[in-house]
Specification:
The protein is mainly beta and 213 residues long. Helices cover 7% and strands 30% of the residues. Strand 7 and strand 8 form a beta hairpin.
């Protein structure tokens, strides 16, 4: 019920958004000397992601994996083999694991990568194939104060300053690294919107998927 709570608590998130850094911080930064709580630079449990950009059509949308890409809003693309499985997670939300993977139950898991056009994708089940020129690991950053309710996800893929979302013809907004040479789906890079990526710890993995497609 995490994302439903966020959408019903928009005022709280808008207030938080003002405190979210607009520039990506690296995992090697040390916490400020005046900070009393330790800064966490790697997620220890699975999490979901919500976009934050006040006054825009992408504000408070969940980041979802579908069609081998990532989009803001809607539902993920989820698959459950029946048979042999009698039940699977609901496929209601996209849950991430660590800095470079999806929290999928399919054997072998599913990895996330950054394509050379700036977009993000994920591997198919039982496959380790990546597009030519893709970045595999080391391009995402994470920051959270110990004990805080929310964290922040960032990216420096191909020199990016964070994330942006670009409109598509039929899938809403697709997630890209915020780089000037990205290939926007509709060919209009100026229509893309930068956003902050808010992370929320997920303990109910039944909201995730056996496999993302």
């Amino acid at each position: 019920m995490h994302l439903l709570i966020f959408l019903n608590s928009a005022l709280l998130l808008v207030a938080f958004a003002a405190a979210v850094p607009t520039k990506t911080t690296t995992c090697t930064e040390e916490p400020a000397a005046t900070t009393s709580s330790a800064a966490i630079s790697s997620p220890s449990i699975p999490y979901s992601v919500v976009s934050v950009r006040s006054g825009s059509p992408i504000h408070l949308l969940s980041m979802q994996a579908r069609n081998q890409n990532f989009y803001l809003g809607g539902l993920p693309g989820a698959y459950c083999p029946q048979p042999p499985l009698s039940s699977c997670p609901s496929g209601f939300d996209t849950i991430f694991a660590g800095l470079g993977g999806l929290s999928a139950l399919v054997p072998g898991g599913q990895a996330i990568y950054a394509r050379s056009d700036g977009s993000f994708g994920f591997t198919q089940a039982h496959s380790a194939r990546y597009p030519a020129g893709a970045l595999i690991g080391g391009y995402l950053t994470y920051s959270k104060t110990d004990g805080a309710q929310f964290g922040s996800l960032g990216t420096h893929a191909f020199g990016a300053t964070g994330f942006m979302a670009c409109p598509t013809e039929d899938q809403g907004y697709q997630v890209f690294a915020a780089v000037g040479n990205a290939t926007a789906p509709e060919g209009d890079l100026a229509a893309c919107l930068g956003f902050d990526a808010l992370t929320v710890d997920e303990t109910d993995l039944e909201r995730g998927a056996w496999q993302y497609i």
